[in-house]
Design goal:
The protein is an alpha+beta fold. The protein is built from five helices and three strands.
Length: 113
């Protein structure tokens, strides 16, 4: 599918922030040590990736762990190419953000479906 809509970087960032704001406070509060970043494109070996979680899921941490901040990356280019309208982009951004946040909380792919 060839995307027909692209958004300014600022508009796309607002969509990501809005998606994060829809999380219940009990979950949002646990994301304080998680960086959410936007990149135009994923790594070359992952061309169709819409989002990526990098870190140690909460379910795998122990009290002794010293961990770097986790990172959720949302990839603007693949999302825009997948979608036809701004409404589609907004829905896909929300779904992608929730999917990657789910990985942070320890959910596996099958559970996220």
């Amino acid at each position: 599918m060839v995307g027909r809509s692209s958004l300014s970087r600022r508009r796309f960032e607002r969509l990501v922030r809005r998606a994060l704001a829809t999380l219940p406070e009990e979950f949002r509060g646990r994301l304080e040590n998680v960086a959410v970043v936007i990149e135009d494109e994923p790594p070359e070996d992952m061309p169709d990736t819409l989002g990526l979680y990098e870190g140690v899921p909460l379910t795998e941490r122990s009290l002794e762990d010293v961990t770097l901040p986790d990172v959720i990356t949302i990839f603007k280019g693949p999302i825009e190419r997948t979608c036809h309208t701004e409404e589609d982009i907004e829905a896909e951004v929300r779904l992608t953000v929730l999917h990657e946040v789910g990985h942070f909380f320890g959910l596996e792919e099958a559970q996220l479906e």
